[in-house]
Write a structure and sequence with these properties.
The complex is a heterodimer of chains A (428) and B (310). With 428 residues, chain A is of the alpha/beta class. Chain A has helices at residues 6-27, 44-60, 73-86, 97-105, 127-130, 155-161, 172-185, 200-208, 225-240, 247-251, 277-282, 320-332, 334-340, 350-358, 362-374, 389-404, 410-427, and strands at 34-41, 64-71, 92-95, 134-135, 138-139, 142-147, 149-154, 191-193, 267-273, 288-291, 306-313. Chain A starts with 5 loop residues before the first helix and ends with a helix. Chain A: It is found in: Periplasm.
Chain lengths: 428, 310
């Protein structure tokens, strides 16, 4: 899962050393009126930028000291859960939409409605976007940035193979035809498309394109064994034709930025959340591009915009007002966002987003162009996943492994997926 | 009167025993403090949690034997974890002890530079449990890794990834474990030094061959040491975690082929927030290890003989 390369680690060390030298002695007062803890999961770029912003915040708010802790997402949730059990969660935490409801309904995070208009200024946010942080009518998390699942591709490989990316209105058939063009010219050890069938957003989009979904409003499964079997069969054919890599390469992909097939330079096309474009580009010497998921012939749009991460204040914080100040600073301060930029997705604060649009870097320009086309091809955000959904996601990866190692047929895998998912939901 | 005498003599016996064992208990004190201050409380808490549903975020709910019922009747990953763990223990422990004994006997010959060799052979045990070595192992057995290239030299098709093949992934972890034979080797070496040379000389006089001397003298004399190593290594093997965690990125994959019991326990507790069920798994592991240790002890009277029995 680690995204840490030696290069980025060194960069991180240098940056933090420079940061410490520049701000260290000045901003940490001898005594602090309040001490906040702020935790997030991330990657070296995010950690570096967020720490720099926190230093600025401390400089502007004498009397507030912020201790930061950044972890890999695999380590983040166990640690947060353990701290929740011990009643010593951080004051401000980065939240995933998946867990927002569980933490809110268990009273581990607090409603922020009273802070909005006081410490927290959301006047430049789209109300609809803010609403994705609501649980049972109350605002428990404020979206930190927007993203959408996407197709990421290697432009240099396309040039090398002499192929041209079809228009983003492509159907799944056109997508696989394009993959066949690549396969025809790709050298041995190279494949067209990463086998991301087990990546839940890919399955989700496939279902939503036919008006189905992973989970219903009531938290029940929104698809049948036959739906899953059809999906698995599509990928099995691709594997049989050699369009996606064989099982052992797919098994290496633990969804970390560095283990994905596109980062290991095995494939020309991969799938990822749009805010990972920068991170994936950092792993790749070739220039990457971003486009829409293939569409279903005669189907409906399957993609949706989602909040990449949210910011929450925990129930056991004893400096909630100061915590709200920090949240506001991270979300709405122009100086802060000049440093954070779009690493957590496109900012929800429209004024900030507009400022960033004035001088976008390469990744940001691509992301913005991508968002412009995504916006015309989205359906509403899905209902919140039920408890146990996180485990279903892990189970699906395992189950798909059995499929690609030929232990199961697509039909059997479809049956197993539905049965095992139901068993997990029943047990949660 | 009689009772008083017997009580006081029992007290004397205890005092005598205490005087004899005093230094031993002194050495145990750091461990005892650690056990009572740090381990005992959480261990007892986990015994209670084993009978609850506990998601960490909300207080535990008592559910009786539900966890164990699910474990034995429904949980196919639990069965897979048992199978992986037993396969690992039954292969890695005998292989490791065999290799350790072989190397120890070779080193015991007293050739020049023995100390150096001993240090070199011990090295993997020092570094072997580390995350760095597990990462190195990944590289070795991955597609395009060293083994892949060696196999290609031998005429295999390119792109053989042993580590990502569910039929072979566990084997690489067994090899990784066997490679760390240093600790039992050092203990075997000490044991070999204890065997009186006159036994060997007498046997040689009587015309015993090398193999005969090994089976009739070395092995029986070494039995207490083998016994000790067997118990320690078996317990260690049941508790294996780091290598599988790093090599499979915490998944136990490919498709659960390296799902060690401890790894499954960790996933249930810390990834899926079922701390109650994870506690039940932990206590069942304790029972398994205790049973294996008891069996080894019971079998000992048939093959372990101490020459210092008073």
């Amino acid at each position: 899962m680690t995204n840490l390369t030696r290069r980025s680690f060194n960069r991180y060390l240098l940056a933090s050393a420079a940061g410490a030298a520049a701000f260290g002695g000045l901003t940490v007062p001898a005594f602090a009126d309040s001490r906040l803890r702020f935790m997030w999961w991330g990657n070296p770029t995010r950690d570096e930028r967020t720490n720099a912003v926190v230093d600025l915040f401390e400089g502007n708010n004498s009397g507030i000291v912020v201790d930061t802790e950044a972890l890999a997402s695999n380590d983040y949730w166990p640690k947060i859960a353990t701290q929740a059990a011990g009643g010593n969660m951080p004051d401000v935490m980065q939240m995933d939409y998946r867990f927002l409801f569980e933490y809110a309904r268990r009273g581990q995070i607090v409603p922020l409605d009273d802070y909005v208009g006081n410490q927290i200024d959301l006047s430049n946010f789209d109300p609809g976007f803010v609403d994705s942080g609501r649980v049972d009518g109350q605002l428990f998390g404020i979206p930190f940035g927007a993203n959408s699942p996407s197709v990421i591709y290697n432009m240099a490989k396309f040039a090398e193979y002499g192929v041209t990316l079809p228009d983003h209105s492509w159907t799944w058939d056109e997508f696989w035809d394009f993959a066949r063009q690549i396969k025809a010219v790709a050298p041995e050890g190279q494949w067209a498309v990463a086998d991301k069938a087990a990546w839940e957003p890919a399955f989700d989009i496939f279902l939503r394109q036919q008006g189905k979904q992973l989970y219903t409003e009531q938290g029940e499964l929104g698809y049948t064994a036959a739906d899953a079997a059809e999906y698995f069969e599509m990928w099995r054919q691709a594997r049989e034709e050699g369009l996606v890599p064989p099982a052992d390469i797919t098994a290496q992909d633990s969804d970390g930025l560095d283990t994905r097939p596109i980062s290991r330079r095995r494939v020309a096309i991969d799938f990822a959340h749009s805010n990972h474009l920068g991170g994936l580009q950092g792993q790749n010497p070739d220039e990457l591009g971003i486009t829409l998921f293939p569409h279903r012939e005669g189907g409906v749009p399957g993609q949706y915009m989602k909040c990449a991460t949210l910011l929450c204040i925990t129930a056991n914080s004893d400096a909630k007002d100061d915590a709200a100040k920090l949240v506001n600073y991270l979300l709405t301060d122009p100086e802060a966002n000049k440093i954070l930029r779009m690493e957590r997705g496109v900012p929800g604060d429209n004024a900030i987003a507009a400022t960033l649009l004035e001088d976008p870097d390469d990744i940001e320009r691509k992301t913005i162009e991508y968002f412009a086309i995504v916006q015309d091809n989205v359906s509403p955000m899905p209902p919140p996943p039920p408890a146990g959904a996180g485990e279903v996601e892990v189970m699906m990866v395992r189950l798909y492994g059995e499929l690609i190692f030929d232990r199961l047929t697509p039909e059997e895998a479809g049956e197993r997926l539905v049965n095992d998912a139901q068993a997990i939901l029943d047990r949660a | 009167m009689a009772t008083i005498t017997s009580t006081s003599s029992r007290w004397d016996a205890f005092a005598r025993q205490w005087r004899r064992g005093r230094s031993g208990y002194m050495f145990l004190i750091p461990w005892l403090i650690g056990f009572f201050a740090l381990t005992l409380g959480p261990a007892l808490a986990s015994l209670y949690l084993a009978f609850t549903k506990y998601d960490i975020l909300t207080p535990p709910v008592f559910t009786g034997l539900d966890n164990f019922r699910y474990m034995f009747l429904q949980d196919y990953r639990f069965r897979q974890a048992l199978q992986v763990t037993f396969t690992y223990v039954l292969w890695s422990v005998p292989l490791k002890l065999g290799l350790a004994l072989l190397i120890a006997i070779a080193l015991d010959k007293g050739t020049r530079g023995v100390d150096l060799y001993r240090a070199i052979f011990y090295l993997p045990s020092l570094i072997g449990g580390s995350v760095a070595i597990a990462v190195l192992w990944r590289q070795l057995f991955d597609r395009d890794g060293l083994t892949d290239q060696l196999l290609q030299l031998l005429g295999w098709p390119p792109g053989t990834s042993i580590l990502n093949n569910p039929d072979h992934a566990l084997k690489t972890l067994i090899v990784l474990s066997v490679w760390q034979f240093g600790a039992p080797m050092v203990i075997f070496l000490a044991g070999l030094r204890q065997i009186p040379q006159d036994l060997h000389e007498a046997a040689r006089m009587d015309g015993a061959k090398t193999m005969q001397r090994f089976f009739r003298i070395t092995l029986p004399m070494l039995a207490p040491v083998i016994f000790f190593n067997l118990i320690m290594q078996t317990i260690d093997a049941f508790k294996a975690f780091t290598q599988a965690f790093v090599v499979s990125a915490g998944t136990g994959g490919p498709i659960d082929s390296t799902l060690f019991y401890t790894l499954y326990l960790y996933q249930e507790g810390f990834a899926f927030f079922r701390m109650g069920y994870a506690s039940a798994l932990a206590w069942f592991l304790l029972i398994i290890i205790a049973a294996f240790t008891a069996l080894t002890f019971l079998s000992a009277k048939y093959w372990v003989h101490y020459d210092d029995t008073r």
